[in-house]
């Protein structure tokens, strides 16, 4: 009886060892990369605007900046929804009167206070930009610091580009598998990388020149195009035919 039990144990151990070795065999797979991209014209822009006020003391300068900022907001509201306009922080500093140079006590130059109120406009329709530029040019002590074009439905386009990148990866893997004489199995792992290459921020002078060109009938082309990219790395299992 003892001999029979020992024999059964050895057979069971051998079977277990065989299964363990089989499980440790490397999985046959192929790793491929898929890519897709699309150039899209921006349809909106974000503007950063500075509105200044000057006076002999800080309270007067802040009051003047606030009054000028209110006038700018009223002007902007003619071109975009009020909810897209935000008044940000106000900075106050002492400057040499009539300039932007910082005032020093030992300079002997006349001094005044300069208050600068920041205003941000979001989701401004790109075709309204030349009109906004011309309107702001008429506002006192107002300048546009930056213009940042963007695409309003970038997320939806990213999803579409991602599907194209997946199709590209699957097609590549299929061609390789066919050449090797094997079948393409299910995906094992997927890594997604998306990139929305937004347009650079434009300084006031460049945008102003484009606005002048548009006013002369040359069109407005400063915004260029945005490139939306997607890249995927997919591992597929390979199966015997």
From TrEMBL:
InterPro entries membership: 26kDa_periplasmic_antigen, SIMPL/DUF541
Pfam families on file: SIMPL (PF04402)
Statement: the UniProt record of this protein carries the keyword Signal: yes
UniProt key word Signal: yes
UniProt keyword annotations, A-Z: Signal
Signal peptide: 1-22
GO biological process terms held by the UniProt record: DNA damage response
PANTHER family hit by this protein: SLR1258 PROTEIN
Protein name per Swiss-Prot or TrEMBL: DUF541 domain-containing protein
Provenance organism: Oceanococcus atlanticus
